[in-house]
Write a structure and sequence with these properties.
The chain has a domain of 214 residues: Rossmann fold. It is built from eleven helices and twelve strands. Strand 1 and strand 2 form a beta hairpin. Helix 7 packs parallel to helix 8. The chain starts with a strand and ends in a 5-residue tail after the last strand. The chain binds adenosine-5'-triphosphate (ATP) and magnesium ion.
Length: 307
């Protein structure tokens, strides 16, 4: 099956005070139509940068290289206007931190209306009807009241559901959701995931999360480390029988598995053959050779010579 999204040799580099910093390195990723993929990995590994690059929302200072193809067309080579049309209508984003993603001085409904008015050219009245329907779809009991509410009067879970309504307003075929359950209590978390999964039915979902149980709601799990994909496979395999030492360590750090935190921090050095080597309990001389992402089982890829 042709992938809906094809990323090839993607690198994103930022200029910093200490010189160029490569946040995403030579990354390949295919997303098939209808696939639900969890993107995981520790803070700073490049998940949001990858998500933003996919949706064409990188800042001008970033140097973006490689290919990002949506339905066979390279997003990096489209005009600003074309990317703007695709964003929202074909690729939706549910951004990280709902606190800053919603405008505090605009009523929630008016912010969602903008999707219909600015991208689809609908009139204000029609936009309001569609927004209220969407708010109803994501589980607000009184969508008319929510429409007129300011974000600061809503809980974190409510803001997150409003962002799901906004990101899915135009029924995009690809939805990138960046940590939609961060900071939510367990009950709101499951409610938000249920709504997200329902809205994403039949669509392709890239769900960025630190949460093991949220990832378990996906078909496939991709784990990044220091700008690279280090493990990629069916969710039930990566979550229960991971093969990369970092992923093994990550699940061991879960409270129910004994809360054994992984020692060390992510190395900012991008030249090592294995970027995890300085923390790895299995390291030996073989780690000094280039480590490619290789298939070790059916659709299961790992970047480690010991896997
Ligand atoms: N505009 C920028 N300028 C310089 N460096 C940046 C910029 N944006 C991101 N980075 C760096 O790129 C790396 C990846 O950032 P990113 O936001 O993708 O991490 P993340 O995996 O989403 O982390 P988290 O789980 O905390 O959200 C980090 O080291 C970050 O400091
Ligand atoms: Mg992030």
């Amino acid at each position: 099956m042709e992938p809906l999204l094809r990323v090839r040799s993607l690198s994103v580099t930022f200029p910093t005070l200490y010189g160029p910093f490569e946040a995403v390195s030579d990354l390949d990723l295919d997303l098939a139509p209808g696939e639900r993929v969890a993107l995981m990995g520790e803070s700073g590994c490049g998940k949001s940068v990858l998500g933003h690059a996919i949706i064409g929302l990188m800042s001008d200072v970033a140097d973006v290289r490689g290919l990002i193809e949506y339905r066979g067309r390279d997003l990096c080579r489209m005009s600003e206007e074309e990317v703007r049309r695709i964003r929202g209508a074909s690729i939706g984003l549910i951004p990280q931190s709902p606190g800053s993603a919603l405008d505090p001085v605009l009523r929630v409904g008016r912010q969602i209306d903008e999707m219909y008015v600015l991208i689809e050219g609908k009139g204000q009245k029609e936009a309001k009807v569609l927004t209220i329907k969407r708010l109803n779809d994501v589980g607000f009991d009184d969508p008319e009241e929510t429409y007129d509410t300011y974000p600061h009067r809503m809980s974190g879970g409510m803001c997150e559901r409003a962002l799901i309504a906004m990101g899915t307003a135009l029924d995009p075929d690809l939805l990138v959701a960046d940590e939609p359950t961060k900071g939510l209590d367990p009950e709101s978390k499951m409610h938000v995931i249920d709504q997200l999964m329902e809205r994403a039915t039949g669509k392709t979902l890239l769900l960025i999360t630190h949460d093991y149980y949220v990832a378990a709601a996906c078909d496939r799990v991709v784990v990044m480390y220091s700008g690279q994909i280090i493990e990629d496979g069916p969710a039930h395999i990566v979550l229960t029988a991971p093969r990369h030492p970092y992923v093994i360590g990550l699940w061991q750090a879960l409270p129910e598995n004994g809360l054994r935190p992984m020692p060390g921090t992510m190395d900012r050095d991008k030249t090592a053959n294995c970027r995890f080597m300085n923390r790895c309990p299995f390291r030996d001389e073989k780690c000094h050779t280039p480590q490619e992402l290789r298939e070790i089982g059916d659709a299961h890829l790992v970047r480690c010579c010991h896997a």
